[in-house]
Design goal:
Structural class: mainly alpha
Number of strands: 0
Distance between the termini: 52 Å
Largest sheet: none
Number of helices: 4
Strand content: under 5%
Helix content: 55-70%
Radius of gyration: 18 Å
């Protein structure tokens, strides 16, 4: 386990303990790390359910560490116009 993975695990553990203390809920850390759909859904649920600043910061931190950032391409991947770029 490299330092980046270790820090992600620490932040996720803090999220789990803060979630239990704040909302009396649990989160499956194995699924959080291995199932992006679960992570997206569960982090969204937590974000909607709380106004606690510390918990929201942890959700944002875990999301940034575990989920790939979607980047909009500068150019479309395919040109679907009938004559390409010529118009």
């Amino acid at each position: 386990m490299n330092l980046e993975e270790l820090e992600a695990a620490r932040v996720a553990a803090r999220l789990k303990t803060c979630l239990r203390a704040t909302l009396n809920q649990n989160i499956d850390l194995v699924l959080l790390f291995n199932d992006p759909e679960y992570a997206i859904r569960r982090l969204g649920e937590i974000e909607q359910a709380t106004a606690d600043e510390k918990l929201l910061e942890l959700v944002a931190d875990v999301r940034a560490r575990l989920l790939p950032q979607s980047v909009e391409p500068d150019e479309p991947k395919y040109d679907y116009r009938p004559h390409g770029r010529r118009g």
